[in-house]
């Protein structure tokens, strides 16, 4: 993004060909002439609660910040986290807080800008974002901690834009900025957004105590075929609390996107595509071979009534007969699926070809089918209420 903006970029780091690791002395030639430095590095190999001089994340950050000031660079941007708190449950949050304290008291304080970054999503599905996406798609029933905890998502591109604004823009009246959504959402709502963006149905939770979750983290390291979960991430979530971000976003001129819309595009699952597939499934369930006119009519009706997308799972879209297990009794008109099926019936009526009337045995078969399906519908019909 910086290069696209016309900046020359010098990368210091441990990638192949890199010439710097956190804690190393920085060559003045790498820093002189720069208009800003963005510090993203963090070592996970450090002792959990090492003293300041032994913690390379603290000592290394201070060393780099002071070298940046000595080289005449006007801005040093430190990538922190919204988990940064003195009493954070996870080591990462406590370490970030300690770095912030030392940075604001150091010789580099006049050029230091701290960016507390929220829950990052988008881009490569790795790290915390990749883990959450996998867990959300794994099963419609998910054991999870911290469901009521508030999180503040922000897209990777928006983080980059905010960091670049701090590194290259005018001096700001604040020293600490919060890069995160203004309106926090519950962690449960966030996981549901991730699941729906991947074309899955609704997500139900089994609340898990923190102690049990930490034990499960150890188990994930031993069991195959399931994602390994670091206890640090669990503790970070358990201690999550929202931070005020509106002033920071205003100063940096950032307008954050709706995560649900962005993720739908990134996962290739737009609302229009999902609505069309659901409309096809509803019409096929009613015994119709959908025409283009019927699909357009039904999609418009579903959208107008606020029923789109319903959240039908990919399995039900492929096999519409499964909708019989979820269809509520005929008198349950407030039910979303019942309303959608009613609209599907109306949408197909003008082009419907008259068929044979069901005889006595057909009626008996239909009644028997309803009786057999009743227990399933009693249990499952609430899914699309």
From TrEMBL:
Protein name: NADH dehydrogenase
Chain ranges of the NAD-dependent epimerase/dehydratase domain: 38-169
Sorted UniProt keywords: Membrane, Oxidoreductase, Transmembrane, Transmembrane helix
Positions of transmembrane segments: 358-380
EC number of this enzyme: 1.6.99.3
GO molecular function terms listed in the Swiss-Prot or TrEMBL record: oxidoreductase activity
Top-level division of the source organism's lineage: Bacteria
First-tier enzyme category under EC: oxidoreductase
